[in-house]
Amino acid sequence: MGNKHSCCVYPGRHSSRSSTTKGGGGVEGCVEEGCEEQLSNLQHISEREPDDLDQDPSLHPSAGPLFLIKSKTVIENGLVRRRSRSHLDESRTLKKSSSCSTIYLDDSTVSQPNLKNTIKCVALAIYYHIRHRTASRTLDIFDEKLHPLTKDGVPPDYDRYNPEHRHIYKFVRTLFNAAQLTAECAIITLVYLERLLTYADIDMTPGTWKRIVLGAIILASKVWDDQAVWNVDYCQILKDISVDDMNELERQYLVMIQFNINVPSSVYAKYYFSLRTLAEANDLTFPAETLSKERAQKLEAMSRICEDKYAAQMGRNGHKKWSSLDNINAASRRSVAILS
Asked: How confident is the model at residue 229 (pLDDT cuts 50, 70, 90)?
């Protein structure tokens, strides 16, 4: 992954051959001597205990995301308190509601989320992960002091103060804009991020969050996009890091999540709607516009295209699709009347 050779093995092992992850997901190959034996010892996701699956928000569709749980707590005087409903409603502004005569919609859907608002929500989720962490468990590969992202390094108190939401948003937005990544990739990034925190049992701290997010973005871009951004391209964005550092970050990230890069559609949808819930609770609601005639026609055309694709797929799978009255031509609706 990148323009240098790498191998997806455990940290500390010397590697001389390469392996890649593609859009379909999974590790294509690992040809280094002894690597197959190491990979055979990895626990496949299907072999995990059912209890573990139920508690893993990145796999189970009904398990609440970690960021949504952490966002419902406020730390005051060292005490963790639940945010009351009245506290949420005090700062909430009035919103327009749809009626019979007027319909308000935003331009974000589960299949095509709004890029700017999605990145804001993901940055807010990262902010709550850092602010409401229960401990400061870290790993060296994510420590900015050991692996700085700039040649100037980090200040002595780099791990003492929590970053603001706007700083997190600026970092994530810069990567997404420069690499031309999509909003769907941002949601996958958050899934991988929480999967790492769950599997590796670590926390996001002020000194490690940037490299954790960067590693998640690298994997998400390669899994989601067929023509993925190479690691050397990220070195053009963050000019003071090396390709070897990016390769090692990606390699260890894969090991920590047990090479499980699969994201079920139900989990993706859960994270999307959870991000919208987070936005509403923090006054980051997506702007709604009045549904005009032109926009309604565009939505109808998009739904027709999706319906035709689904029908074609069902036909290839041998399933028969029943036509509705809307899809029947006017000529075929005519029938001979029998008069008696």
From this structure: confident
Can you say whether the dihedral through the CA atoms of 166, 168, 173, 175 is positive or negative?
positive
Q: Which residues contact 218 (CB under 8 A, 6 or more apart)?
A: 1, 229, 231, 234, 246, 249, 250, 253
User: Could you give the angle at the alpha carbon of 312 between the alpha carbons of 306 and 316, nearest 5°?
Assistant: 145
Task: Give the whole-angstrom CA distance, residue 177 versus residue 40.
Answer: 38
Phi-psi region of 180 (alpha: psi -120 to 50; beta: other; left: phi over 0): left
Comparing C-alpha atoms, which of 213, 208, 7 is closest to residue 125?
Answer: 213
Averaged pLDDT, 196-217: 95
112 band by pLDDT with thresholds 50, 70 and 90: confident
Mean pLDDT of the chain: 75
Virtual CA dihedral for 186, 187, 190, 192, nearest 10 degrees?
A: -100
- pTM beyond cutoff 0.70: no
Alpha carbons 325 and 314: distance in angstroms, whole number: 19
